[in-house]
Design brief:
The chain is α+β, with helices and mostly antiparallel strands and 211 residues long. It is 36% helix and 17% strand. It is built from four helices and six strands.
Length: 211
């Protein structure tokens, strides 16, 4: 489902399909859809893999070339082994440090497994089909609450009850969206493999790096 199809789906659920009297413009609905897509990406990011190269005499790698990174899941080094060798690492800003005993040689490949934000536009979608309904629900909730806020203290043809309806309905949709994201969050996914995530914290140090 691309962006135009998602927008049509959202309009249908919002009962806003008469183009001559749209309550929301395309740009407004697109903004709410992208809001929902971003929130989904933070909870259940798209799985991606990148190949980086080491620099002689350094354990540090730059991940600045990786777009929309949400988290780094695991690092494989050296590559090409069976079973794969996953090593501990630390991450600070855009610098990923390999926590290995031997300093790497230059030009060695390193596989980085990471999660990134989803893309949804007129030509591309990385949102999994089973989660498209969830994105629509989130966008509808954001749109309804935005309109209810806008309509406060304004004269409406349907009276104040229209604003209250959108407020209640929008909050209900948003609650469903948040619950759905929680159930699909990476923290709730069962993994059949053990990968190294970031390094364990030093005594007394707190971190949210763990899987």
């Amino acid at each position: 489902m691309d962006l135009s199809q998602m927008r049509a789906r959202v309009r249908q659920d919002l009962h806003d399909e008469v183009s001559s009297s749209y309550r929301w413009t395309d740009a407004e609905l697109d903004r709410h859809i992208q809001h929902a897509v971003r929130e989904l990406g933070l909870a259940a990011p798209q799985e991606a893999k990148a190949t980086l190269s080491t620099t002689a005499g350094s354990r540090d790698l730059s991940i600045s070339s990786l777009a929309d990174v949400v988290l780094v899941e695991a690092v494989e080094y050296p590559v090409g082994k069976y079973p794969p060798v996953y090593v501990p690492f630390s991450l600070w800003g855009s610098t990923l440090s390999l926590l290995v005993e031997d300093v790497p040689n230059g030009g060695e490949s390193v596989y980085v497994f990471y999660g990134k934000l989803h893309t949804l536009n007129t030509t591309t979608s990385t949102v999994p089909s089973p989660l498209e309904d969830l994105v629509a629900i989130g966008a509808e909730g954001y749109a309804a609450l935005e309109w209810a806020s806008f309509a406060t203290n304004r004269v409406n043809v349907g009276g104040t009850e229209v604003r209250r309806y959108y407020q209640a309905w929008g909050q209900e949709r948003l609650d469903s969206f948040l619950k759905g994201m929680a159930s699909h969050s990476r923290r709730n996914r069962v993994r059949a493999r053990h990968l190294y995530a970031a390094a364990q914290p030093r005594p007394g140090q707190s971190t949210d790096w763990g899987p």
